[in-house]
Amino acid sequence: MTDAIQHKNLAAAVDPAQVRPFESPEQHLREELWRIWLRVEHEIRRRWELQALPQSQHEGSLGSWQPRELDGLFRQARGEYAGAATGAVDHGSRETRDAYLRHGALLELRIEATLAAGRELPLIELVRTFSLDARQRLTLTLALASELDAGLMVALRYLSNDPTSRHIDGRLLSILVYDSVRARSRLARDLSPRSPLVFYRLLDVEEAGGTRQSSILHRRIRPAPRLLPYLEAGDRELDPELEGLAHILRIDQPGLFPDELVDLCASALRDQPVLLVVQGQQGIGKRTLLATAAERWGCRILALDAGALAKLTHAGPTLHAIVRELKLLDAIPAIVDLENATAGSPTSEAPGFVAQLCELWPGPVAVTLAGERLPPLRLRPIVHVQVPTPHLDTRIQLWHRALPGFADEAASELAERFAVNGGIIEMAARAARVTTGSDQPALEAIDQAVRGQLYGRLSRLGKQLETPYAFADIVADHDSKAALQEIVAAIRERRRVREEWGFRGAAGISVLFSGSPGVGKTMSATAIARELLLAIYEIDLSQVMSKWVGETEKNLAEIFDAAEPGHIVLLFNEADALFGKRTTDASSANDRFANLEVNYLLQRLERFGGLSILTTNLTKSIDAAFRRRFAYDVQFAFPAVDLREELWKRAFPRKASTFELDYKDLAERFELSGGYIKVAAERAAFIAAGRQQPIKMATLIDTVERMYRERGKLSPVGRLE
Questions:
Q1: FRET partner for 588 with CA separation of 20 to 30 A, picked from 25, 33, 46, 573?
Q2: What is the CA radius of gyration of the chain?
Q3: 85 — alpha (psi -120 to 50), left (phi > 0) or beta?
Q4: β-sheet bridge partners, residue 221
């Protein structure tokens, strides 16, 4: 008669009054441990009676274990788990087996009663979640029991006649769980990689001694450490071993998104084998959107760090553990910041762990990325969601959330001034509270905090320039000055022209400044920024350009995303290094990718809502199609004699000590741009100061002639460029 039939018969004979629901998961776990103890005791006593087990075993520093010592362990277990007196008379194998069967029948009835009462039992929930059968459940329980009760492990070592064993192995399973010829054939199957016990890493099956064994009987078996706190208290926290790789997304309140956006994401996350790709700039709330959508179905989002996963040499075991956590926590996986997994990679293909996860996890998988380029994800049907910048009303609500009690007028002013996302708003609010020491910082402090968040994102790829020059300081021809004034007017009035008057076109203004070195291109850009009361950032092209595919576009996206809402002027000096002529015969991969970078820049310039200024000294190197994309193409001419005379006059401050300088003669004698005139004036000033004399014509002439010779000119004739 099988154990199952005997359990059924014994259950029918149990007094219903004895069947009481478990009061706690801990009480249920104790009863499961007691069942394991009875099973082990019965097997040891049966083997004693058959003389199939040595009477004495040497246990190292603990001495020798004999039946007398084992009897003491059994009595101690009865006292701890069954409340029996420790001096009770030992029973034989038959009595122990009957006690085991009776306890098992009563245990199953109490489990049914507990579940019927609406109470949770983590072990049973674990069994149901992973669809474990009776023997798989007993295997898992035995592995857990050996970790929870040190005395039980002593008895198990005695039973296996292996004093060196520290974990259960296939031999013990063949004795206690797979204890018949028919059942033993299932042992290898239940310890195979396809078994739910191993597939979900509920158990780790290791080779004994670190070497490959021919038999499954010698495999060491350990339960996942994360199961112990889960079974004792129903712990719903993430496995600590996954710290740094994954975390549960927690939101205090749902995000503020258009209903149709949340509906689309929620529909995709409803137990369907799809890949939900959520795209948008950094801090725009992609994760919050996913968590808000998942709440519709009572689920949570398990955020997986793409960059950290990409660094793993073998991601397989980790992904299996992640799938286990998804089932335990009733969560949906979201691979966040996918662009970090491909940073520095010579290929634009999605990393391998994305495909692995889609293969292991049958439900929906979400992906977030901040870049413009979507890597090929030919894994599942794709639902693509683009998260837009929050509208004005939404930004006002976000400011009130970040700063409760904030004045309506101040929130509206900030929302209109900065078209930023919720992440920037939250960080700026925290920074303002820290710097002011007040829960209600002033508007000026918050304004500065917002700019700090935005400018901080630009600092890696550029530097902020000073704006000491006004329009009155610019010495240029009439057409150039008129163009600069027109650019300022365009930035100030673009909203009226676009929105009120109905003119169509790019939201922002793109400008190209071309001309010889030193003619005032950078100075004019800073003067425009000063006139508009905006910060100006010079972009470091050496940091932007990358040999890796897609990295240049990623850097450009980061620049434009940070500058878009911050009222920042972007200055690309010597832009011909990045934006030169596109190759029409793109026969090599390098040419094709260079063309892609130029095309990407053209697209971002058209969508950029602010002012971008590009300068070049090599006018002919700029692609003709590229030049047509600029609203203003300002060509700074080399200064004529009258302009050079004015530049010489302005090169010397009022406090400078000069003597009989002939500015017209200097302008006529030397063809210098404004930049070289400034350098010559400063060098002559250093010489005169060292001689304790005023700046004289002779000193200036000597200085300029020396500058010509330094640049390979045989005589001070012609332009110095």
A1: 573
A2: 38
A3: beta
A4: 168, 205
Gap between the Cα atoms of 273 and 492, Å rounded: 49
Neighbours of 505 (CB within 10 A): 11
Indicate the CATH number for domain 392-456: 1.10.8
What is the distance between the alpha carbons of residues 365 and 332, in angstroms, rounded to a whole number?
A: 7
Q: Side chain identity at 256, as an amino acid letter?
A: L
- For residue 617, the cross-strand partners are none
Per-residue pLDDT tens for 267-285? 999 888 999 999 988 778 8
Question: 């332009």: which residue's tokens?
Answer: 719
Indicate the DSSP class of residue 580.
B
Cα separation of the two ends of the chain: 103
Across residues 403-408, what is the average pLDDT? 88
Per DSSP, the residues of 42-80 read: HHHHHHHHTT-S-S-EE-GGG-EE-HHHHHHHHHHHIII
User: Which tokens go with 316?
Assistant: 């397989």
Q: Which CATH number fits domain 641-720: 3.40.1620.10, 3.40.1190.20, 3.40.1280.10, 1.10.8.60?
A: 1.10.8.60
Tens-place pLDDT, residues 116-151 = 999 989 999 999 999 999 999 999 999 999 999 989
Higher pLDDT, 342 or 5: 342
Nearest to 623 by CA among 484, 512, 544: 512
Look at strands 535-539 and 509-515 and give their pairing: unpaired
pTM of the complete model: 0.72
How many other CB atoms sit within 10 Å of the CB of residue 526?
21
Q: Is the pLDDT of residue 666 over 90?
A: yes
